[in-house]
Amino acid sequence: MSAATLEKPVTVQDKKAPARRKKTKAHYYLILIVLALFAVGPLVAVVFNAFKNNAEIGSNPLAPPTSFSLENFTEAWTRGDFATTMRNSLIICLGSVAGTCVIAGLAAFALSQLKVPGGGAVVAYLFLGSALPVQLFLVPLFFLWTQLHLTDNLFGLILIYWATDAPFATLLLRSFLLKIPKDFTEAARLDGASSFQIAWKVVLPLAWPGFLTVALIVALWSWNEFFWAITFIHTPELRPVSTSFLAFQDQYSTDWGLTSAAAIFMLGPVLLLFLVLQRKFVSGLTSGGVK
């Protein structure tokens, strides 16, 4: 029997298969384009409106500006007092990131590497704490903070961020630490290392991608957070950047040109930070197993 007779004949279905695959990929590309427009479209509109006056925004808020003027940016920077609010937000972000990483790192080490009695119940409690809406704690927390003189205080606001961010950060870091082989900790214990030395010198350095991911998430949350900030900070000199938008609203109207320029001031630092560290951020989330 010749080799030619062993070859499988090409059917009509085989010829149509590449066309079907191209058609299927075309659907995927169309969906991705729609999602990209949905995500980028509002940002483009904000950039356009930042260069327009109110009359031009009212006539067509989605059209590109006819002329580029920086007047909205200069006025928004002055009226919103961004020099002060950005400084306050930077202090809040650094304090929140440092405290949350320490609290969540030690808690995650205990839950993943030590035999903690009732560890499963603690993990369930952290899941429950992450799911509950923070508005439930507003009234008792405000009363307690007033008694402790922690209102109108940046440290008092940072304490609230520690409490609200630590449960999720602990669960995220715990997923990293569970992947570390037990051989490292057992070898350190045989060498006479204490639990604190094992955590500080062995386990936690291996989980630096998780700490970087937690730091980015906490920094973004504390930078953009508005509810706790407007509730517990009343002095204008202590307010964070998220409250600067209140300067462009009155009782009956909103200056959308100034609001758009202020949005760029607020989004600029976090967007630049995310673009610089996006690879480490995404790899940290995926390696931690959090979907």
From TrEMBL:
Identify the Gene3D superfamilies for this entry.
Answer: MetI-like (1.10.3720.10)
Its Gene Ontology biological processes? Answer: transmembrane transport
Membrane topology field: Multi-pass membrane protein
Under InterPro entries, the record lists: MetI-like, MetI-like_sf
Q: Which SUPFAM superfamilies match?
A: MetI-like
Question: Any idea which UniProt keywords this protein has?
Answer: Cell membrane, Membrane, Transmembrane, Transmembrane helix, Transport
The subcellular location is: Cell membrane
Provide the coiled-coil residue spans.
none
Q: What is its main location?
A: membrane
Tell me which residues make up the ABC transmembrane type-1 domain: 86-277
Which residue spans traverse the membrane? 28-51, 89-111, 123-148, 154-177, 198-223, 256-277
Tell me which GO cellular component terms the UniProt record holds.
plasma membrane
Which PANTHER family does this chain map to?
ABC TRANSPORTER PERMEASE PROTEIN MG189-RELATED-RELATED (PTHR43744), SN-GLYCEROL-3-PHOSPHATE TRANSPORT SYSTEM PERMEASE PROTEIN UGPE (PTHR43744:SF8)
Q: Which family does it belong to?
A: Belongs to the binding-protein-dependent transport system permease family.
Name-wise, this protein is Sugar ABC transporter permease
